[in-house]
Prior knowledge:
alpha/beta; Rossmann fold; 23% strand; binds adenosine monophosphate
Amino acid sequence: MLGQMQDWPLLVHKIIDHAALYHGDREMVTREVAGPITRTNYRTIASRARRVAKALVKAGIKNGDRVGTLAWNTHRHLETWYGIAGMGGVYHTLNPRLHPDQIAWIANHADDKALFFDTTFTPIVEQIAPKLKKVKFFVALTDKANLPKTKLKKLYAYEDFIARVDDKFEWKELGENAACGLCYTSGTTGNPKGVLYSHRSNVIHALMAGQTDALGVSGKDTILPIVPMFHANAWALAFTAPMIGAKLVMPGAKLDGASVCELLETEKITMSAAVPTVWLGLLQYLEQTGKTLPHLKRVVIGGSACPRSMIEAFETKYDVEVVHAWGMTEMSPLGTLGSLKWHLADLPYEEKLDIKIKQGHPPFGVEMKIVDDKNKELPRDGKTFGRLKVRGPAIAKGYFKGDGKSSFDKQGWFDTGDVATLDKDGYMTIVDRAKDVVKSGGEWISTIDIENLAVGHPAVAEAAVIGVAHPKWDERPLLIIVLKPGKTATREDILKFLEGKIAKWWMPDDVVFVDEIPHTATGKILKTALRERFGHHKLPTA
Ligand code: AMP
């Protein structure tokens, strides 16, 4: 027997229609790539998104076509997303931090038919344009006055492109499983793989993210999504904020400590989300200037492990709650969030911190388990670790064009490639990426744990650990350190600082100091490059 409820397809453009109707005056602020701060609202965004849709149809974009975006978080980028999705197309976010050849490879693999880009990226677009065989036209996300001098052919200024049509456009009638968005994984090993979101998965994910114990946002919040729209859907904020009528402040191209701090102050931001490196920049800026964070209530930190010292700094110095989150492009991306459960709220602060540095617990809609090498489920005891597998309505069931099949099993579980523990309360702790863990004498050492402790040293700005070949133990940990400007520390200082904080056999066999640690396009430590550079480092213990 079937239920008798309405078959109301979960479509992304219904979110912006809802926002226009019920939160139409709610402000949206952008630090434009050209410089000034501009203000609009959800009613205007929805109207302009319809113009984008109509203009795309006029320009020959068809149902299911992928349209690339190479852009910062701005109101125009948001209009573009809703416009593309609403005409039946697929917005395809390209990460401008990748090498231009890789961007071209990804755009071609996705068969992008058009490319919207911010003017900051004009040199990249000029470089890759001759390689983009399927792209019929380019749209610079600006007006005619700010259009850069360029030899690019078939180029529109965005404002002209959408002025060619009016906003009388009926959204395309689509099934909720229709493709809606595409984002490629960063691909540190092998070619990047495409994750193809559906309207349904995006709407369900936005609902999941909007829960109090997830992102914890409400219509009263002013939200600053620093996490880029090109990094896994800006962690749902581009959908959840309009859904609930929260004010959105888009930071554009400037993500340094001073610029972020200025927006936090002038727009009275209450909630924000970003990777640890961005927060490191803000905290250093606050330390240097003595500024405080009077309006900010909560930050969500994820993408890489959030160090204990960072949570402590936000919470004890600036009275800002930290929610540590974990996720993946393949999961839309949110997988776990670290809100404290009811029975943990009254613990002493140090014990709360022990829980807050874990990656959190899954919201409804994410199933998780850990397994051994034979795919046998392992206990949820907070100690045993294994490969983390996940399942749910906003999690990929395959990669675009059939790539990477081995990550998906017959029971519909996706192998995250992360090694983790699960505890009895449902909190998950990432031990490491399976390929990064140090294998010492048959036992595993978590590089993340050592890195997080090392950055607690007052002179350390950033830390990375890799496994280096050892004649007796197979591999031993090497700690690579970047010192804060003007600070000094020796190998012995660092090792002494770690002593007693980790098991003896986890202690790094050596410490090296570098000026910079390389990062991936999504802000993670690029361990492959470190292994190339230090893989043959001679350990004093070898
Ligand atoms: P991406 O798809 O680029 O977002 O990368 C996903 C990967 O980033 C995960 O599989 C983890 O290895 C890592 N990651 C994300 N969030 C965290 C976190 N809070 N702690 C540790 N690793 C994380």
